[in-house]
């Protein structure tokens, strides 16, 4: 019990001495041992490595698992299994769940229906994408995240511990220097007082004897402080060497992280390539079955509006190859259209119209079209609601009148 109390008192005294030294350094009242420039560069490089490694590690986790809150229960379960030294059960990821849902929906809707058969194909592709993602996450966790975590939780903790110990040794060294300096000043002061001739008429002549004994005590104190300084200097040098070796190991850490980064890039490249191949296969399967699923997709609309549209996004629609060829052979060529003597005119479509055959045009409401003189299709009327007397379907849709 006495030993513990003494140790506690000693530790408290050391802590107080370090606190006094640290406070004095902050206020600029005491001297501070400065580290060499190379050592300071090593410290700065280590701090930078730790900060950026931590940021890269956290952001990579966010990239691989965008919504960690949604997986809080799963993480707690993994933690419990890890503490119990048991294997974490495999669970489907989001892609695999989506694939399962699509295939279950296809069974409910009927796998023979166009929608059901497509759901089966897309669901199978989503399951394969989910499997590829699972492999990518596992590879990335092993080859990239694990080394970064090991550095932050292992090597860096060791470096931080040794740096704190080095700082304590430095405070002890500077405190010993200050103590020795004060002891030497007191010794010289006591020696000066001891050399003075004593005044025996003084009411307290014993001051001379006390001064002589104080000089001897201060000499002993100087020797003790010098011994403590030598011990503190030795411990500081030894700790500085240990810390220096650890800091120089940051270079090997960079080499290791570089290798892990290459492996991460290779895993990411393989993952995206695999996803691209899966999507290409799915696109080919869906493209080959488009004719069966939508056999008359363009039957009622073989010709799209040849008028330029500036307000409707449907103006960029394309035609199937057979429908496009029919338009080319059966419809009037634009180069054959001659502008009227009065020039071209613009008109606004009142409502949507789908062409019944290749001799007509499909129009959209509010579409602004440039009109030219075409046989049986001539323009302009003062009344937007009036239907053209020539019975041409196009004239009743355009703000114009028929001159036939």
Automatic annotation (TrEMBL):
PROSITE patterns found in the cross-reference section: BAR (PS51021)
BAR domain span: 24-295
GO-annotated cellular components: cytoplasm; membrane
GO BP field: membrane organization
SMART domains, A to Z: BAR (SM00721)
InterPro entries: AH/BAR_dom_sf, BAR_dom, Endophilin_SH3RF
Family to which the UniProt record says this protein belongs: Belongs to the endophilin family.
PANTHER family (alphabetical): ENDOPHILIN-B2 ISOFORM X1, SH3 DOMAIN-CONTAINING
Protein name: SH3-domain GRB2-like endophilin B2a
Organism for this UniProt entry: Oncorhynchus kisutch
Taxonomic lineage of the native organism: Eukaryota, Metazoa, Chordata, Craniata, Vertebrata
